[in-house]
């Protein structure tokens, strides 16, 4: 379904397509080098535009990507000089961008530097929209989407041309979403706004933590936290401590060796916590004296662990295997999918209509066993529709009929599982797709790719539309875990108010009302991080039984490594969705689906998090 007609864009928003080129990836540290904004009319054509280079008077960064040298930028205006004109075209509009979190974050930072604010309250990410539509593309790069929609791209990584291309991609995508009656993934930028506090980039420390500071002085591996103002710039001071072999952190925890604070009487949150934990507190002159004689520490010895379910053992009761174990000591049963033959329904996406909650859980599980991917929404990628009791009365059935999609019954699923029968009315062709994991299954991530995005989504339709209930508020979170399955510090807990870890090695983005993403650079993770657990929590008294199925897709730049759907939730308010972990030098991904009835606060405590106040 890629043939769409020109339609009117939704009139409840004024759409402004935006693209920025930047000197790096972090809004607080890097700068905008060029910006383009195209305001769209109701029919999707450009009615007004703004485009300019920007001179930030800094290192332009990856010139090989954007071709913006210092010489090209030298005569360009500064951001504060163009902020009024840019604000005028953005004011009251909904910002549309490809990876909108990135563009919004940079523009927000630049407007704040200019002494004003970004006049945008809503944004839409075209990557999230393309994922919601489940377009038949190998990846969701702008160039790939331009090719899919037959839009000519003249100059990649040019802000104006990228915005022009994106406006066409958005117009086609919005038309398709309208034909499928899928709501657009618009995000309220002013609600639960993420904070990006200035912090010290995490640098992996090669030394074991020897514990608290004593009269004997500093030892390599000690964990040091700085609170309040410093005479030496904080980042410079942190760099000196790192070079000396200390582990510089941003938050106080029970493992903190010493807190550096020039004025502990101020009683910041870090100072109060350090005092409560009896952690030594020193000032900057004392630190300078101690840095002159840091004693050697004990090198770390990495221990890679794996969790392998035993035959007949519940997934909640894993055993732990050390990397050094001989092959004969490792249980014969693992969940790896490598080498398995394609399953009977591989490559298909099956939408379920009708039935009750338990029917849906059972049938989605059986669909997964057959190798097909259960579809949460009626999208362009749906190949077949499984109709249970009441399904023929579903409001989507007229569109299913119009597309002439095969209708399957529970008997068809049973026959496929029991006797390997392919229903004669099922289309023989099947799209290529990534492995569909069942709960508990494990697959190796391709070694050639270290950058991955764990995309989490749930049903796009607002829960309150038909039930009269308010929409469900879901938070996706991540934990960077050591060999004891605990975070090393509160900095290793990624959530909406701490979305960046280790200078962007792990990043959380909210891409839509029912789409959130955890991006990982596995090559940049500290050696003592053995496992990343990604979970979801529901705010208030609602449960995963109310939310329904949750889809997880592990996507690389060019490929999808695995997908799975978790829908067995009933009374749970938190759920561990997936784990990505090291084993024998490789990274693996596991579909988990372990739920808990208690809230997010209880979940983070299980992983050793003690959230402190920011200061």
Strand content: 15-25%
Helix amount: 10-25%
Per the principal axes of the C-alpha atoms, what is the gross shape? globular
* Average of the residue pLDDT scores: 84
Strand order of the largest sheet: 3-2-1-4-5-6
Distance between the termini: 52 Å
Short note summarizing the structure:
By secondary structure, this protein is an alpha/beta fold. β4 (94-97), α4 (100-113) and β5 (122-125) form a beta-alpha-beta unit.
Write a structural description:
With 615 residues, the protein is of the alpha/beta class. It contains 16 helices and 28 strands. The strands form six sheets. Strands 3-2-1-4-5-6 form a six-stranded mixed β-sheet, sandwiched between helices. Strand 15, helix 12 (397-402) and strand 16 (407-408) form a beta-alpha-beta unit. Helix 5 (126-133) runs parallel beside helix 7 (159-180). The longest helix is centred in the N-terminal third of the chain and has 22 residues, at 159-180. It starts with 14 loop residues before the first strand and ends in a 9-residue tail after the last helix. Residues 1-5, 193-198, 302-339 and 462-468 have low confidence and may be disordered.
Secondary structure: elements and pairs:
Layout: E1 15-22, E2 32-40, E3 46-53, H1 63-66, H2 70-73, H3 79-90, E4 94-97, H4 100-113, E5 122-125, H5 126-133, H6 142-148, H7 159-180, E6 186-188, E7 223-227, H8 234-243, E8 247-249, E9 258-261, H9 269-276, E10 281-282, H10 284-291, E11 305-308, E12 319-322, E13 349-353, H11 357-369, E14 373-375, E15 384-387, H12 397-402, E16 407-408, H13 410-419, E17 442-444, E18 451-458, H14 464-467, E19 474-481, E20 493-494, E21 500-501, E22 506-512, E23 515-521, E24 531-538, H15 544-547, E25 550-555, E26 560-566, E27 574-583, E28 586-596, H16 600-606
Parallel strand pairs: 1-4, 4-5, 7-8, 7-9, 9-10, 13-14, 13-15, 15-16
Antiparallel strand pairs: 1-2, 2-3, 5-6, 11-12, 17-28, 18-23, 18-25, 19-20, 19-24, 21-22, 22-23, 24-27, 25-26, 27-28
């Amino acid at each position: 379904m890629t043939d769409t007609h020109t339609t009117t864009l939704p009139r409840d928003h004024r759409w402004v397509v935006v693209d920025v080129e930047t000197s790096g990836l972090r809004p607080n540290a890097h700068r905008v080098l060029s910006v383009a904004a195209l305001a769209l009319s109701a029919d999707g054509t450009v009615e007004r535009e703004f485009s300019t280079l920007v001179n930030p008077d800094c290192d332009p960064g990856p010139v090989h990507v954007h071709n913006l040298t210092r010489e090209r930028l030298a005569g360009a205006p500064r951001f504060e000089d163009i902020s009024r004109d840019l604000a005028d075209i953005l004011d009251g509009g909904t910002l549309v961008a490809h990876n909108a979190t990135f563009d919004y974050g940079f523009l927000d930072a630049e407007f704040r530097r200019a002494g004003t604010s970004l006049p945008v309250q809503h944004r839409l990410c075209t990557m999230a929209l393309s994922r919601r539509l489940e377009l038949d593309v190998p990846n969701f790069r702008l160039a790939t989407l331009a090719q899919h929609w037959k839009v000519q791209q003249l100059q990649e990584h040019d802000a104006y041309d990228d915005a022009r291309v994106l406006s066409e991609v958005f117009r086609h995508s919005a038309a398709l979403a309208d034909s499928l009656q899928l709501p657009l993934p618009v995000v309220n930028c002013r609600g639960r706004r993420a904070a990006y506090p200035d912090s010290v980039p995490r640098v992996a420390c090669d030394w074991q933590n020897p514990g608290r500071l004593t009269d004997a002085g500093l030892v390599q591996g000690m964990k040091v936290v700085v609170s309040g103002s410093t005479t030496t710039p904080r980042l410079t001071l942190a760099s000196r401590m790192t070079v000396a072999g200390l582990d510089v952190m941003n938050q106080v925890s029970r493992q903190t060796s010493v807190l550096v604070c020039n004025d502990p009487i101020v009683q910041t949150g870090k100072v109060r916590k350090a005092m409560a934990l009896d952690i030594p507190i020193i000032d900057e002159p004392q630190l300078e004296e101690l840095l002159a004689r840091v004693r050697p520490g004990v090198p770390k010895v990495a221990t890679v662990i794996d969790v392998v379910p035993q035959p007949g053992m519940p997934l909640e009761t894993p055993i732990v295997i050390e990397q050094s174990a001989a092959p004969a000591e490792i249980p014969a049963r693992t969940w790896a999918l490598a080498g398995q033959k394609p399953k009977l329904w591989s490559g298909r996406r099956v939408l379920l209509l009708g039935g009750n909650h338990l029917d849906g859980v059972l049938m989605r599980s059986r669909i997964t066993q057959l190798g097909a991917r259960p579809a949460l929404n009626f999208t362009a990628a749906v190949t077949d529709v499984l109709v249970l009791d009441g399904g023929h009365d579903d409001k989507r059935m007229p569109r299913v009929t119009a597309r002439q999609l095969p209708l399957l019954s529970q008997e068809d699923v049973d026959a496929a599982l029991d006797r390997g029968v392919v229903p004669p009315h099922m289309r023989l062709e099947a799209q290529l797709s990534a492995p569909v994991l069942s709960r508990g299954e494990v697959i190796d991530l391709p070694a050639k790719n270290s950058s991955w995005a764990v995309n989490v989504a749930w049903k796009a339709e607002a829960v309150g539309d038909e039930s009269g209930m308010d929409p469900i508020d879901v938070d996706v979170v991540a934990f960077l875990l050591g060999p004891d399955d605990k975070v090393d510090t509160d900095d290793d807990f990624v959530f909406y108010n701490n979305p960046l870890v280790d200078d962007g090695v792990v990043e959380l983005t909210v891409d839509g009302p029912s789409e959130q993403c955890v991006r990982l650079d596995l090559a940049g993770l500290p050696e003592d991080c053995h496992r990343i657990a990604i979970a979801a929590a529901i705010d208030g008294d609602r449960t995963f039984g109310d939310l329904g199925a949750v889809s997880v897709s592990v996507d690389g730049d060019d490929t999808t490594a695995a997908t799975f759907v978790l829908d067995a939730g009933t009374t749970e308010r938190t759920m561990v969705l997936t784990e990505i972990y090291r084993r024998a030098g490789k990274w693996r991904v596991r579909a988990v689906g372990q739920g808990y009835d208690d809230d997010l606060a209880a979940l983070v405590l299980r992983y050793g998090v003690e959230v402190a106040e920011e200061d």
